[in-house]
Amino acid sequence: MYSKLLSLLLFLGLIGTYNPVVAETTPLASYRWQNRLLLVFVPQVEDERLTSLQQTLNQVECEFQDRDLLLGVLTSNAPSRIGNDLISAYDEAQLRAKYGVKHNQFAVILIGKDGQPKRQLSDVPAIEQIFGQIDNMPMRQQEMANRPNACN
Description:
By secondary structure, this protein is an alpha+beta fold. The protein contains six helices and six strands.
């Protein structure tokens, strides 16, 4: 009887330690505390809203990088990426489900270094608003105090 009880407790203990591991293997876990993410969900990679946003980001590349931002482009008609990393179709579907973005929708989601969504938009954002929101975050305030702005 004691061995069955011990086995049950051990089994329950393993489940208790398993859940945090699952939480750490989410598609965005490797970026946590390293990067902020600007995730762009597009129906097709040729979407003019994505092209417009990419052109804007090319003009402010230094400021984008200074804020430790990575661009994520998630689409079903081309390989999805976050920065230079390919995202599997499974992970793309997981992220769409998590943030409630359908395959035919356009959405932009700002993810903080803590892995939490900070803003979700259904249109192309003004980059100044995104930068302003980031610059008001406590972690970014510390970053600005501790390192010089390389973009001036």
